[in-house]
Write a structure and sequence with these properties.
Blueprint (H helix, E strand, L loop, with lengths): L19 E4 L5 E5 L3 E6 L5 E6 L7 H74 L5 H17 L6 E2 H18 L6 E6 L6 E2 L5 H10 L9 E7 L3 E9 L11 H14 L4 E7 L3 E9 L15
Parallel strand pairs: 6-8
Antiparallel strand pairs: 1-2, 3-4, 5-7, 8-9, 9-11, 10-11
């Protein structure tokens, strides 16, 4: 039994073989614990002092060694956990930086490719209007207005990441309209669109390089131009198909590599593993078939395609 001083009520501390319980004057359990002698002094205002007396059998070098090992184990565990957390946070920070650098690199490359596309498009369009003006065609004013619409789209809308599919199709229609105006056999130039473009979005200017290429090299030795374009819109994808005859400019076809390589690079950046591109040249006809996967939202879904 442990007796209290005159300032505190008497507290009885029963000793047992494996635990000890200190009780207040109200009989409430304070602490179960190892077989240590505990002397509790209760002051008037509720403050308390606790004195712990360690039995001699616990005050040995063997017990101290065991307790030191336990303490070292606990400290080591905290150190390992802390180091693991620090390594993970550093990895996450590095991953975020790498992703940001990669994103900035892709954005820079896309801006460069678009910068190449705009002059190429303008050069071809001005050639079409020049042909009309040389012939003193009455269609020249209409061609200028159509070119104005095309340039407005390229300057103010095509710089977005995604555009409404309906606007992109309108842009394609205007471009083909401009080409028809300069041709004597415009009836050989066809555009067919199937499906519903409502509420769907797409990366801008993905098809125009193929269309430009078809008109540039699709005129035969008699001056006849044959270009057939078909666009099929499905719920989750769009298929673009264009076919032209191989005309008198075939010898210069290597110079068209800028436009075609441009679009190939853009497709790899924008739709990695989400597009299928097939290009065929049988000596008489040049055919492009391109399938893209889209959702109609601001992002494109991936699809397991292998680029041709």
């Amino acid at each position: 039994m442990i007796k209290n001083d005159s300032l505190a009520p008497e507290v009885t501390v029963p000793m047992e073989t494996d635990s000890i319980y200190a009780r207040t004057h109200k009989g409430e359990d304070i602490m179960p614990g190892p077989p240590f002698m505990i002397r509790r002094r209760f002051l008037r205002h509720g403050a308390e002092n606790v004195e712990i007396q360690i039995p001699p059998e616990f005050n040995t070098w063997k017990m101290r060694f065991i307790m030191s090992l336990r303490a070292a184990g606990v400290l080591g565990m905290y150190f390992v956990i802390g180091a693991a957390i620090k390594i993970y946070m550093e990895w996450k920070r590095g991953e975020a930086i790498r992703n940001q650098v990669q994103s900035e690199k892709i954005t820079s490359e896309l801006q460069f490719l678009k910068a190449q596309l705009n002059p190429h498009f303008l050069f071809n369009s001005l050639n079409s209007i020049y042909s009309l003006s040389v012939k003193k065609s009455n269609d020249t004013p209409e061609a200028v207005i159509t070119l104005s619409d095309l340039m407005r789209y390229m300057l103010y809308e095509a710089n977005r990441e995604y555009v409404p599919l309906a606007r992109e199709l309108e842009y394609i229609k205007n471009y083909i309209k401009l080409q028809r105006l300069r041709l004597s056999n415009g009836e050989q130039v066809t555009l067919n669109i199937y499906g519903d473009e409502k509420d769907k979005k797409i990366q801008p200017l993905l098809f125009i390089s193929f269309i430009e290429n078809a008109f540039k090299y699709g005129t035969d030795y008699t001056g006849k131009t044959v270009v057939r374009t078909v666009i099929t819109i499905k719920e989750d994808s769009i298929h673009f198909y264009i076919k032209n005859i191989i005309g008198r400019h075939k010898k210069d076809s290597e110079s068209s590599g800028v436009g075609l390589q441009n679009i190939k690079n853009r497709l790899e950046l924008l739709y990695p593993d989400s597009h299928k591109l097939d290009i065929e040249d049988d000596g008489e006809h040049f055919t492009v078939s391109l399938t893209l996967k889209f959702t109609g939202h601001e992002t494109a879904e991936s699809i397991s395609f292998h680029a041709g």
